[in-house]
């Protein structure tokens, strides 16, 4: 049933995009990254938190279920192809945490695990009248390190590109 709908949407110009792969910090723009990356796995072998793995195509991707990014830049130092380049004052990426509908606090169950793991204090809890405080991500403080991701008991947290248009 979804296939005919997909074809119909395609013909109407409604293209569904697969979410972009999460690349290591300081990766070039996707097209340039794919052109430069040799799939050597050097970035993967030096990552101290083990979050860099290979996708089915062999390009490095991030797996935040394994841990968080410490922004140590070991992957950049190991990258001889130039697919990862750290420029002065350049942020590692535009990834930020977002809390979804499966959050326990949204279901009136006390949980503050994400806030406990956020070392930069980007997750704060807003009190609700007659209810459990809700977590809110301050995207200006969030580094996208994903320290909050793996500990979440309901996998309510997503790490995604921030939308500068909103």
TrEMBL record:
[4Fe-4S] cluster 3 binds at residues 142, 145, 148, 152. InterPro entries: 4Fe4S_Fe-S-bd, 4Fe4S_Fe_S_CS, Fe-S_Ferredoxin, NapF. It holds the Pfam family Fer4_7. Residues 28-57, 58-89, 133-162 form the 4Fe-4S ferredoxin-type domain. Its cofactor is [4Fe-4S] cluster. The keyword Iron applies. Keywords: 4Fe-4S, Cytoplasm, Iron, Iron-sulfur, Metal-binding, Repeat. It is found in: Cytoplasm. The keyword Iron applies. [4Fe-4S] cluster 1 binds at residues 37, 40, 43, 47. CDD domains: NapF_like. [4Fe-4S] cluster 2 binds at residues 69, 72, 75, 79. Interacts with the cytoplasmic NapA precursor. Could be involved in the maturation of NapA, the catalytic subunit of the periplasmic nitrate reductase, before its export into the periplasm. Belongs to the NapF family. This is Ferredoxin-type protein NapF. The gene is napF.
């Amino acid at each position: 049933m979804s296939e005919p709908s997909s074809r119909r949407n395609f013909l109407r110009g409604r293209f569904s995009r697969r979410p972009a792969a999460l690349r290591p910090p300081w990766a070039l723009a996707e097209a340039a990254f794919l052109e430069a990356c040799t799939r050597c796995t050097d970035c993967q072998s030096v990552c101290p938190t083990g979050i860099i793995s290979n996708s089915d195509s062999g390009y490095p991707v991030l797996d935040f279920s394994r841990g968080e990014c410490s922004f140590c830049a070991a992957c950049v130092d190991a990258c001889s192809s130039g697919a990862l380049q750290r420029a002065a004052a350049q942020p590692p990426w535009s990834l930020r945490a977002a809390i979804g509908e499966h959050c326990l606090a949204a279901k009136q169950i006390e949980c503050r695990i994400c806030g406990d793991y956020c070392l930069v204090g980007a997750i704060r809890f807003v009190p609700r009248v007659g209810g459990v405080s809700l977590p809110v991500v301050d995207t200006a403080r969030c580094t996208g390190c994903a320290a909050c991701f793996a500990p979440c008991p309901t996998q309510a947290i997503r790490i995604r590109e921030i939308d500068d248009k909103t």
